[in-house]
């Protein structure tokens, strides 16, 4: 039996995704494959044994915007880790809000991307990226309670800062370029 899709959890219908078909042609057939590519592109927070360092698919073949919407796709089997990786990829440096909104519309994943963007705006109110993205997305009903990860699953939180002491600092989890050892 197939696991339920994100669409099922959200109470909508699942569709045949052109983007997920493209991903499958490139060898990205499962949420784990997509999450591994996000890790390879800098979402090191989600790394685990077994993920190779080398990107399995380059940005020329599958853009960060496409990876974002593949991970947040309602046609994908429900996978909280994939959704968290998708939220991180949404905030990747250089992403086009216009491209993300367009892909979300094509993939019927506007509700999920809007939820992520609202969370981003909450944690990074000064970041114009989230405002721009929200302006391009239609207003959608909030997702069903518990259908998507809690907003705190998209951020890093510190409780103790050396030299400062106890202080809560939140930072949106996003891909970071790896430092090359000299």
Write the layout of secondary structure elements.
Layout: H1 6-10, H2 18-25, H3 31-40, H4 64-71, H5 80-90, H6 97-106, H7 110-123, H8 128-136, E1 155-161, E2 165-172
Antiparallel strand pairs: 1-2
List keywords for this structure.
182 residues, 8 helices
Q: Report the C-alpha radius of gyration, rounded.
A: 16 Å
What order do the strands of the largest sheet run in, or round the barrel if closed? 1-2
Estimated share of beta-strand residues: 5-15%
Tell me roughly what share of residues is in helical segments.
40-55%
The total of beta strands comes to: 2
Globular, elongated, flat, extended or rod-shaped: what is the shape?
Answer: globular
Mean pLDDT: 89
Which spans have pLDDT < 50 for at least 5 consecutive residues?
A: none
Helix and strand run? HHHHHHHHEE
Question: Into how many domains do the coordinates divide?
Answer: 1
Please give the alpha-carbon distance between the first and last residues: 50 Å
Instruction: Give the class from helix and strand content and strand pairing.
Output: mainly alpha
Count of discrete alpha- or pi-helical segments spanning 4 or more residues:
8
